[in-house]
Amino acid sequence: MAKRTGKGSPRTPRRTDGLSRELIVQAATDLLDDGGETALTLRALTARLSTGYGAIYHHVADKSDLLAAATDDIIARVLAGVVIDADPREALRGVALGLFDAIDAHPWVGAELSRQPWRPALLEFYESIGRLLDALAVPERARFDAAGALVNYVLGVAVQSAANTRRRAGTDTDRATFLATVADQWAQLNPSQYPFVHEAATRLREHDDRDQFLAGVDIFLAGIATLR
Questions:
Q1: Which burial class, exposed, middle or buried, applies to 226 when counting CB atoms under 10 A from its CB (0-12, 13-18, 19+)?
Q2: Are the beta carbons of 183 and 205 closer than 8 angstroms?
Q3: 22: burial class by Cβ within 10 Å (0-12, 13-18, 19+)?
Q4: In the chain, helix, strand, coil percent, each to 5?
Q5: Are the CB atoms for 104 and 165 separated by under 8 Å?
Q6: CB 95 within 8 A of CB 132
Q7: How confident is the model over 180-205, as pLDDT tens digits?
Q8: Half-sphere exposure at residue 127, Cβ-oriented, CA atoms within 13 angstroms
Q9: In terms of C-beta density within 10 A (0-12 exposed, 13-18 middle, 19 or more buried), how is residue 76 classed?
Q10: Residue 211, number of CB atoms within 10 A of its CB
Q11: Which range (79-83, 142-146, 148-152, 206-210) has the least confidence?
Q12: From CA 214, how far away is CA 158, in angstroms rounded?
């Protein structure tokens, strides 16, 4: 039977196994995935881990430290999935898509990277891009600009996509409905004034964000091929 506090309410049973930083970070990630940043509180974390505040503070400094650690962990998982001996072009597509998918699955990661754009794991991502560009024979003089362009593209599109998802989450409008509404507005524009936008209305309604993201990466790869 659970013990009771002085007020008569049951006290949460304490865990008997060891508590590690890894376990804390995983529990924080679960809370963030379930309810976003507002769901990550020390009270919620102690309840999920069946432990006290002191045990948490022994491993992490505060909520900001937890957010940063959880973000680094997500990006590290993306990099761990890169096949080192793969064709560098396919490896580059894989790591770019991996980060896009990770931010799509964990929207809070995008928000954290916007606040702290040079987290240690993100530096590893940047380094991986640089190595792959080297393997693709991009000249050293162009490698810095090429790496920056690709990293900014990946993060920009992924963070914006995640932000759009979060924004719609608070409404009754799903992605398909939202795109259909915008496409209808585009279709009603004067085609002589907006020929491309008018023509693109149908594609907007039907497009897949992930496929369009990869198309952008392929355009980038086609561009850097001219630098060799």
A1: exposed
A2: yes
A3: exposed
A4: 75, 0, 25
A5: yes
A6: yes
A7: 999 999 999 999 999 999 999 989 98
A8: 10
A9: middle
A10: 8
A11: 79-83
A12: 11
Tokens read off for 2: 């659970």
Q: How far apart are CA 206 and CA 166, in angstroms?
A: 21
At 6, which helix (H) or strand (E)?
A: none
Q: Which burial class, exposed, middle or buried, applies to 219 when counting CB atoms under 10 A from its CB (0-12, 13-18, 19+)?
A: exposed
pLDDT digits (tens, 9 = 90+) for 83-130: 666 799 999 999 999 999 999 899 899 888 878 777 788 888 899 999
Q: Which two tokens stand for residue 187?
A: 């279709």
Residue with tokens 């013990």: 3
Cα–Cα distance, 189 to 154 (Å, whole number): 31
- Residue located via tokens 């799509």: 104
Place of tokens 């999935």: 81
Q: What does 148-207 look like in DSSP terms, one character per residue?
A: HHHHHHHHHHHHHHHHHHHHHHTSS--HHHHHHHHHHHHHTS-TTTSHHHHHHHHHHHH-
Q: Is residue 125 within 8 Å of residue 152, measured between CB atoms? A: no
* Candidate CATH numbers 3.30.360.10, 1.10.357.10, 3.30.1490.20, 3.40.1080.10; the one for domain 85-227: 1.10.357.10
